[in-house]
Amino acid sequence: MRFLKSDSRLIGVLLVLAITQLIGWGTIGLPAVVGRDLGADLGMSLPAVFAGSSVLYVTMGLCAPWLAKAFTRYGARKVMMVGTVVSAPGYVVLFFAREPILYFIGWILLGMGGSATLSTGAYIMLNEVAGRGAKNAIGGLMLVTGLSSSIFWPTTSFLSDWLGWRGTCLVYAAMMLAINLPLYAFVAPRRKIVTDDPGGAVKPAPPPAIPRSTFGLVVCVITMNAFVNFGISAILIELLRAEGLAPAQALAFGSMLGVIQVSARGLDFLGGGRWDGITTGLVAGTALPIAMVLLMLSEGATWAVATFILLYGAGSGAMAVARATIPLVFYDQAEFAKAMSMIALPLNLASAISPPLLAGLLTQFGSRGALGLTLVFSCATVLILVLLGRRRPRTVAAAAI
Question: What is the mean pLDDT of residues 152-161?
């Protein structure tokens, strides 16, 4: 909690990002609540409706590398303002959609805007304010964004009952322009270059360049874990049913996941600066293969399912923080912005591909097929994190002791 006592600018940017990220992530969850209404109006199957979210993630990933120079040159605030202006018409296009083509064009626009405003831009803005000290701030922000579905699913349900799903889209477009855009334009701080030792009179020598192989390992860790987390979360209810649980039991266990994930993020947040993203990833990442092996060997025993939910929920929740903060170990300021923009491409592609791929494995080979692939990815993630731990820059490694 030290950053809250030392930097009022950081508190201000956290408040801005808490509001805008909640709105950004909460509103794109529209199909989860009104998917059947969307399908009925547009003549689309439910899987086709949810493919809109896959289009969003693919578009975000493809646009992210192009934004790297913009984040570096203009700063996160200006890029996020432009992204907000691009996102709002996406909801307007959804409002006017009468056929699948226009529906998917709407999600393309939302993906283009999201690549500038969702997560990556927020982390870059926090890094601009706090440098490597942004780790705890990112953890605090993720505590809030983890509640986006809890807040916006009932909000979407209420608005759709009152205005219909099309009216809800217009409300969300208005929120982008009336809430998010002014917050970025008038409240978010302008970019200020910081150093990790602001009191030093002499500018320190630039740190040694990070090898390209290290960046490749960072990309692999983040991408593989995103594949596991997004995929398992999407198929969790069906996975538990394949393990022999009744639908009501599977839903009850699945509903516990979000609470456990947010709680794990909270524990990492309370840890402050006492450990870095690699340490968080090692501890959290180890819990994932243990949870999967337990579920594979348990044959659907209730105690084992409960333990799986606890271990997987805690591990995946903390790993979400690690995915955002591992680059802070190696990069700062402009290099961090470039790294996050480049990482966003494989991360978002993995997020888009994993749910349908794991669902296919679940259908064809049962729970062992889906769990087997995610187990391999989870074990590989832990091994690569061990390698990254040995490649920590010396100054960061000393700070983590």
Answer: 89
